[in-house]
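Continuing from yesterday's entry. The apo prediction looked reasonable, so today I'm repeating it with pyridoxal-5'-phosphate included to see how the binding region is handled. Same sequence as before; SMILES copied from the compound registry.
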Amino acid sequence: MPTLPTATDALLRGPSSAHYAATLHEVVDDVAARVAAVAQPFCGASRAELAALVDEVDLDAPGVGDGPALREVADLYASHAVWFHHPAYAAHLNCPVAVSAVGAEAMLAAVNTSVDTYDQSTVATLMERRLVEWTAGRIGFTAGDGVFTSGGTQSNLQALFLARERALTGPDGTRLTGAARRELLARLRVLATASSHFSVAKSALLLGLEDDAVVEVATDAHGRMEAGALAAALAATVGAGDAVMAVVATAGTTDRGCVDPLAAVADACDAVGAWLHVDAAYGGGLLVSPARRHLLDGIERARSVTVDFHKTFFQPVSSSALVVRDPADLARTAWHADYLNPAADAEVNQVDRSLQTTRRFDALKLWATLRAVGADGIGRMVDAVCDLAAAVHAELEGDPELRLLAPTDLSTVLFRYEPEGVTPEQADALVPQVRRVLFDSGRALVAKTVVDGRPCLKLTLLNPDATLDDVRTVLDLVRDAAHGLLAGQALAADAAPPCRGVHPRLDRLAATSTQAAEVVR
Ligand SMILES: Cc1ncc(COP(=O)(O)O)c(C=O)c1O
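Holo prediction written out below.
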């Protein structure tokens, strides 16, 4: 008789439930202590140091047990992670997470529901569908349908997939096939601005569109789509014998945090029957904003909308949704398998609506946060980060050293260190260097990007607890890093620093600093 392996505490089952509770409590206590003690967003370890720590773990060694393994994992991961809740983290679109959502995350991981067929998910399917309805209602769709996805990239891909399938549907309502499909596919065009997220162009590639399928629509000086230019581009596309597959408007561009004029864009789309997709991955939080909901006016006229809850709803990664105005559009995602979701099966399910099969119950986290904090509570946090960005913009107006580059509707700050005496080329070169010095120090994390063809630094403010003083501290570190870099360059060239007298710290540093990184360490 072969002996069956003995069940152990390694798996979460009835007999191991006490061990599970003890193990999780230890993890939670450890994370809580770390969160409380975090003094800077990153420890500043070098990649070589981290690579050595990662490489030294023997993944083929015998198991050490849950407690020791998780303590080892915490030492490796949590000690060296980037902490988005620290007010000096101001780089990308990452937010501190709602405690309610983290609790729900622990719950859904333990239960391990897959929201595909009803028989695997039961109430989870009903809860996700209710949240989709809730989101559709906030958008202003009277019917609507949708599905949770892994993020804005996947939501955008699915929206454009639906638009492609609609475009490749014949007058009799059936899918075009063969040569007719190939011929039309080659002529499909997606109209978007240069500020649209790169996932739009990437989706076009994945969907088999031509290399020149994404047509750039002109913007105003702040990167917002020009409705007049869109109307002209739509006419030009059709005039050239091409077919409009979709127009992508962005509600919250990644760099500038600007919202395209959705109502005017919808007018232009409606005039020619074009599919309007609104990428509200960043600006989706405005759906619950008490003060700024009007920025999304017109979103209800979109045919599909991306909302990232893991950006402006303070949800842990991952949590996003694609929501469509007409449920028949989403039905184009369905694919039937005898073993899972046969066409004859009348049971409600989300797998027919998803690009994924097995799929996390991310909706539970948002549900918990809506119940814990309330939609208005989330919206007030969105308003808080937008207010903070507005205050930082006001403060930078007229700053002698930091030049503000663009306004925002949301919560980004685009700027350069460019005082008088520093050439534009020097300012260009300082952008990646300053970011690097800050990153290496771990004391403040800022992003870099390119605006109007020139490099610049970017703050993305998504921490409602951060204060103007917190941001001032980050900006002081930016100045210090720039001073140190310039002083180091001047010493290396045995010359006076190029902007002596601009800031007392610079003159002091010119005499003392050889390493810019020392300045902010
Ligand atoms: C406007 C916009 N759309 C889509 C995305 C992609 O979202 P995700 O990173 O969740 O895939 C981003 C990410 O920053 C974004 O800013």
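Comparison notes:
- Residues 93, 151-153, 156, 197, 199, 250, 252, 254, 279, 281-282, 308, 320 surround pyridoxal-5'-phosphate (CB under 6 Å).
- Residues 128 and 342 are 21 Å apart (CA to CA).
Will overlay with the apo model tomorrow.
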